[in-house]
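Researcher: Here's the sequence for the chain we discussed earlier.
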Amino acid sequence: MIRTAAWFCTEHHGLYAPLNKSWQQPSPSLSATAEIPALIGRPVKYYARMTAETRYCLCSASIALKSAGWDSKAIEIGLLSAGSDGCAHANEEYFRDYVANGRTLGRGNLFIYTLPTSALGEVAIALSLTGPSIFLHDPTQPLACLNRTAEQIISDGEATGMLALWSDASAAVCLAIDRGQSPDSIESLATNQSNPLQLCQKLQQLVRQA
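Model: Thanks. This is the structure I predict for it:
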């Protein structure tokens, strides 16, 4: 079941939880040295070098993880991710830097994020997730694909719960998925075919209407 849906974008962040308490707040600056660690709930090594997409992912995933009440040190929590726009942006930034440096050297801190698994890996490390971590992008229904895959992984006993991230360079949405039957109001989110930022705005509207 999809237990909760968390989101983070430049303007706002929050949690949509039909079976619990939903909330939304203005987002702190991604460079906020005190507010971001407080939101995540732990210090994050190498946060300063992360791309905006990775920071969005980390913030939304930490909200989803806390809302589900899972202890990542006690149970296997996995991570799925979709969205290649942010990775493409990171590649463009790296190669612009490479050309600017005479086509001989590109900065390593930019190169790290040129793979679609980069943000996923950083989130898994920062949140101490020990379950399966997979990048899996379906261009037509990314969230539906992540939801089906998460349910299969849980059914096979490979994880107790899964976090499913859909992100780009402007926003990230994270679903917390475990066993059970999802409320219709949140299950329908999996068929959303817009983009991460538009879904953030949809989730904010749902919270305001709750």
